[in-house]
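EI: anyone free to look at a 445-residue chain?
SC: sure, send it
EI:
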Amino acid sequence: MELQKTGVESNGLAQSEYDPFRHRRVKKPNSTNGTIIHMLKGSLGTGILAMPSAFRNGGLVFGLIGTTLVGLIYAHCVYLLVSTSQKSCKRTRVPLLGFSETAQSVFQHGPVATQRFGNAAKAYIDYSLLIVSFFSVCVYLLFIATTLRDVINNELGIEWDTRVYILLTAVPLIFVTQVRELRYLVPFSALANGLILVTFGITLYYIFREPIDLSKLELFPEITALPSFFGTVVYAVEGIGVVLPVENKMKHPQHFLSCPGVLCIVLSFITVLYNVTGFFGYARYGAATKPSVTLNLPMVERLALSTQLLAALAILFTLGIYYYVPMDILWRKVKHWFPVQRHNLAQIGIRFGILLAMTSLALGVPELEPFIGLVGSICSATLGLLTPIVLDTVFRWSTPGAFGAFRWRLVKNTILMVFGLFILVVGTYFSIKDIVEIYGSPRNG
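SC: here you go
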């Protein structure tokens, strides 16, 4: 492989003299604003509607502190991933590296003990992203279909089955999932962001429609509620899978980590928005706060009912960006199977075939969400939190002084790794608990 053949001192140039940004040749690059839109869509989803529920578990004061802490940790993990990828590009003298290629490069050019794990690291990240992304399509299909069923059946007085709405939802997705270039997905991501923000605005209208009384609300959590709080916030914020794909497609990639840059703007906005939603949503509904705050709204009113449809439409337009990442990985693995002149037809067929398979799975397994939650807990915690920390640590390990005075960066990475393992264990536990409750109950026994 090129990563293995290229050395730090190739062509007689020192590592510091190689600028990967100058050597990037990206077809149809994204503007900085387009990248901000995609990054927002990667982290801004229906998870924002679950933030009041997170604050119900965390309390008003700790909820603000904890959400800000999670936002900072996630932003730091994204920074570690992107900066490690860019430094690996310099070291191996290549213009860009994806998520899995970064892991492969870091391990293969790291300490002797890690070098034989390069291919394994690449395969793990690739297949984790494939599994999480493709199976998430099933969950989103079910979410959209269930929402449409509840709203339309109630409004029109009909009794169409959920499967009918799954098939209806799949029709526009045939076209959305055929979009292959990130720049052409910008309008879809922008529309999805807009719909989520409108839903957020309507929700705030109902929250502030009457005076809010904070006197009887919990300020700090019970110890037993902490896992639920952190689990909800982390999985609401995390969107690591889209980070390097969108950074690699930037016209000005140096704007990603600059200050203020893409990462700073997006994560600051997300953290503030999630804090506002969580704080005031819990302040309004207290102990009665439901898993999605829209469920607390008076559904007898059309405006409140519209939040369900808006959230479903936002997810529909989001699926293009979620489809992009796994398809990019899969196409790079299989494109050599097809003659060049058949690449276009092959991509159309593969994209349609996978959508058909995921739709069939959604039709056949209505209780798929708990299993996806289990896969997501394992893969999201490892990809979003643990992997960037491990890559930064391995990259620095053989470089004298890379961890700073008193090896403070290693201490910091160790603390963050403990937090990531906590989230991994907690998420896995609650996902397994959900599966046992659904499939282990007498009605399913």
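EI: The chain is about 70% helix and 0% strand.
SC: 👍
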